[in-house]
Amino acid sequence: ILCLVSAAALDFRYHHSEELEQYLKGVHAAYPALTHLHSIGRSVEGRDLWVLVLGRFPTHHKIGIPEFKYVANMHGDETVGREILLHLIDLLVTSYGRDPVITRLLNNTRVHIMPTMNPDGFEATKVPDCYYTRGRYNKNGEDLNRNFPDAFENNSATIQPETRAVMDWIKNETFVLSANLHGGALVASYTFDNGNPVTGSLKGYSRSPDDDVFIHLAKTYSSNHASMYKGTGCDNRQTFPEGITNGYSWYQLEGGMQDYNYVWGQCFEITLELSCCKYPPADQLEKFWRDNKVALIEYIKQVHLGVKGQVTDKNGNPIPNAIVEAKGRPHVCPYRTNEQGEYFLLLLPGTYVINATVPGFKSMLKTVEIPDNTGNFSALKQDFSFPEVSDQIRSRVASCPKIPLYQELTRASAAVKPTVHILVLMTAMLVIFK
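Below the sequence we write its predicted structure tokens.
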């Protein structure tokens, strides 16, 4: 009976903080083995930042099972994502054990859903508007999507409680893939949002080392959406071919959440703009849910792209903080193994050389042929064992610094040019003197 009550209780309207909390608690009570509900922190006004986790092992990370997240409503007046995530929860819990695809998805993925990152902003939006209200910001008047450390320039904004909570959450979980849900346009936007000459900003596009993967992720969402793939913008001025855009190409922003996830969280995140109108009338919510339902599920499956595995010592103990990256796509903040020695690399099907490095030891290279495994709900498995490393040696590595890392690269590339000339001269001189 409980299951029916929780499922039947969700209708197509806006749910304010207390109702949202009540709904999440009802779902958890009805499906205690499949869900875990917790608050990752509080807003400025003290509202809980609720996250519902769904999966076969909802309370904790299990080796080999990737972590996925959806975050909505970080701009309090952009409301569609908030409601469709509640309907996604409803779909997942009621389909588990009945629908084979959703059952396999939840058996092999741990899915975290945060319907609102900015509950104060949502409650402050008294008069819904399609364009802009003060509810966009948090209670301190800060834009949360300009509030994260930035890889390109010093972000002087004071980090807000909501931002801090999300940063800690990213640090404490091994997130592999994510999307944050916005409104005000209809497009899937991907990293980088900021840029400099190193990433191609002079050409109006800020390219990450995993640009191909990001394009694939954005297209996965847009092509499975009812109309996003058509690329027609919200007005006549703006069109997005195939319904996707590089963030920087659209407009540059500093301190964005998706760049932070990718650089410091080792998590690929895209930004989904789901409605031309930021706060549409409630009677349109059912259509928004229908338009996004398939795309939301197909996007989660992409967490199983690429390769994953464990790095262990000669006794089979996990090695945390080992660097594991695909050759030719180094991250400015190298991707490292978690406490269980695990790594997850999202890569499109193809041949890659995977390089595992334990500081102080010789790197191990393995060539892998990556198939498209998203339909099997498991990335290719490739472990690394370091026979000369004993469990006494544990690489203690400080987390990546929060300084603008790409600024350093720009300086380095400018500094390298004259150095190369000097090296050539010195080599020539040596040859002559010999």
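Residues 405-433 form the longest helix (29 residues).
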